[in-house]
TrEMBL record, chains A, B:
GO terms for molecular function: ATP binding; triphosphoribosyl-dephospho-CoA synthase activity. Pfam families: CitG. It comes from Methanoculleus submarinus. This is Triphosphoribosyl-dephospho-CoA synthase.
Length: 274, 274
């Protein structure tokens, strides 16, 4: 009798979601020790649990990436915590469908207009806002008509959003930051401290576009420089975390990319448990 | 398009495991703010995630309760955190199979010798110790032979352990404390504070048999009285928690029963999210 069973891709995706939210301290984000008033640790963990059927379907029977993203949102938005993992699903669904980064690139390359329409339906289920400059407003039925008229695939929609959204940008650059995050995890070694270290490395080198949309580019740049000061030993991590939480500065896009990075690293043998 | 989907039984079981371990402060146990050196929050959450296929099987296709318990242990013991949920699975598997407490009672009543043999196989995969007085040692192959010879069903095995194990006792008394825990959750209202309140109510009225096996009856009784003093306002909850953690006094059996109580309460409409 086998003593235990290896994890499948769906489980790697769920574990990545769980490990990311539990890791602490992660400046500004919900973590083991911090909630926001409306979004709590339990909301993120519920989302990790409830996404399972969609990850299972993606792994076992494949399916349309746009539809699976919409279904992941539908499975996980039954709580009051708002959108917890929309960006993470944008990365995890192609990764689980394709298995790894190479496979995810192939999934992205094969998207079509129907995927884009399904994505807009998913978007409409969330409270995620597009940048104000976007003319493809998900609350405007005319947007779907415009997508069909222009023949935009989901990859085209992501390319359209990429300048202002680092999660969408992963679709256009071959999952470059996801790859970097996985490499950082391998470099930092096993366990949860490695998740925090990889997260801080990304935060110190990339302006988070979720922060930029909410607070402006300048705040995103300043947060990046502050994270670099933490790594240089010039700023205290706990104090930086407290400042971010107080100001509602949460690097949500880097969190999404960290989840994708953990998924990839787990598939490459990185050990979460040490 | 439905905005979100209702949870099924498997998801209620996983949510119960997640909500129990996140609730804090729970004196002496792993919670959001406390780990033990070898058993951490992430181990409990990994177990909640990885048990899904077994809960799904129990809900959708039924199956043998002893086999499902063994499979749940096999799905979830691939980490270094030791046995996190053996007692919880003893309660959750019949509850998911039967749907609710009435259904679980029927499952218990229908167990046979093969369930008992499977249970011993599950037990052998864990580091759970039986009380020293037990002559049915799971590490002794002769025990399985003895079970077959005596014609003991899994319900008989639980009745044999019931005097020294409050989780086994649930099988013999119709899930009485599980029922009481669910009633306490309804009475305390929605959300995670209610989980802590129900846990403390149980701790203040029942000596935890996991503590008794590890530290002796006197310590279990003393812990119960201390919990009652917390409820009477005569003792500080945080200080009591710290004392328990320092002494390794963890009420693991009451945690298992709390998980079962949350499962039942969720099925009856109790709201975790408020």
């Amino acid at each position: 009798m086998k003593k235990n069973l290896p994890m499948n891709r769906a489980e790697h995706a769920q574990m990545a979601m769980m490990l990311e939210v539990c890791a602490y301290p992660k400046p500004g984000n919900v973590d083991r020790c911090h909630d926001y008033p409306d979004t709590r640790l339990e909301h993120f963990l519920a989302s990790a649990i409830l996404a399972r059927p969609v990850f299972d379907a993606a792994e076992k029977t494949g399916g349309r990436v746009g539809t699976l993203i919409r279904e992941a949102v539908q499975c996980t938005n039954g709580h009051s915590g708002g959108n917890t993992h929309f960006g993470a699903f944008l990365l995890l669904i192609p990764l689980v469908l394709g298995g790894d980064i190479d496979g995810a690139r192939a999934v992205v390359a094969a998207t079509d207009v129907e995927d884009a329409v399904e994505f807009y339906a998913a978007f409409g289920l969330t409270s995620v806002r597009m940048a104000e400059s976007d003319d493809l407003d998900v609350n405007d039925p005319a947007s779907v008509a415009a997508i069909r008229e222009r023949g935009m695939t989901l990859a085209d929609v992501m390319a359209y959003s990429a300048p202002r959204d680092m999660v969408a940008r992963e679709w256009t650059n071959g999952f470059a930051l996801t790859r970097r995050c996985a490499d950082l995890l391998h470099a930092h070694g096993c366990g949860r401290e490695s998740v925090v270290a990889a997260f801080l490395d990304l935060l110190a080198t990339e302006p988070d576009t979720f922060i930029a949309k909410k607070h402006g580019e300048a705040v995103a740049e300043r947060t990046m420089r502050s994270a670099a000061e933490v790594l240089d030993g010039k700023r205290d991590l706990a104090a930086f975390d407290a400042e971010c939480v107080l100001a509602g500065i949460n690097p949500g896009s880097i969190a999404d990319i960290t989840i994708a990075g953990i998924y990839v690293a787990l598939g490459e043998g990185w050990q979460w448990d040490c």
